Amino acid sequence: MSDRIPFRVHPMLATLVREPFDKPGWVYEEKYDGYRILAYKEGERVTLFSRNDKDRTATFVSVAEAVAKLPFRTLLLDGEVLVFDRRHVSRFQLLQNQSAALEYAVFDCLYKNGRDLRGDSLQERRDVLEGLIAKSNGHNTRIFASSRLTGSGFDAYKLAARKGFEGVIAKDESSPYIEGRSNKWLKFKVHQEDEFLIVGYTAPAGARQHFGALLLGAYEDSELKYVGKVGTGFSRESLASLFRSFKPLVRDKPTVADPPREKNVTYLAPQLVAQIAYGEWTDDRKLRQPVFLGLRDDLSPREVRLIEAK
Predict the structure, then answer these.
(1) pLDDT of residue 100
(2) Which residues are part of the catalytic machinery?
(3) What whole-number distance in Å separates Cα of residue 113 and Cα of residue 42?
């Protein structure tokens, strides 16, 4: 049997819905606040890829080493690399800093020992996943099967809200693995957190150095729309690091279709993707109480869109 997995996949993505729901034949999983990773184990070689096909093996060495220890010749796993806080809630900020041990929450197995599982139902793939996790238990604590919440979608939402999870992923147990965005995986959020493009910054004031706030945008169809600014969530180090990355991106004119009426703004080419937590949207579609969590390099700028939940 060859150790080569004969294909590469683009991850299956969940579609956002506005409200929690409950359907027969669906399961509900914790939505993690981490970094989506596809792990390919081909004999002795393990490669980790982000959702936009960037090789992240060197970034998450400990996860690659943990996958390499799994007692199977070939595996293709889909999951989330994350860091838990003291309450066992995943936090993207902790992952950015890598201030604690990395873990790999696996929610799908697409290939095992020469067998392509993509056409099997989610329930069948989950059985395979839980079997391989059970076989490695006791000597591979960095890898675990994603957490399944209570059977009811409404109860899963209440549990996620009580524990402070980002949200819930609902999945049709009968569905095969469908690359790209699908209505067989749906997500409803508890904690508001999304990706936005950095389209400019304001001048610093008082004791702050480098810049005051970041101007944010997202695409609606082909237009880049302004969605507000964020001035909190920065450390002294992140202010300096971000400012250095801005220099080659400075532009003379606004890159958003509806720039704010604000003085002392420097506009940037929309190349940097920021992870932002926020309270809610205002009536004029601006972010309320946003907080900067970090940069993402696993998304292309054109993927950052204003998504209206159905």
Answers:
(1) 78
(2) 31
(3) 9
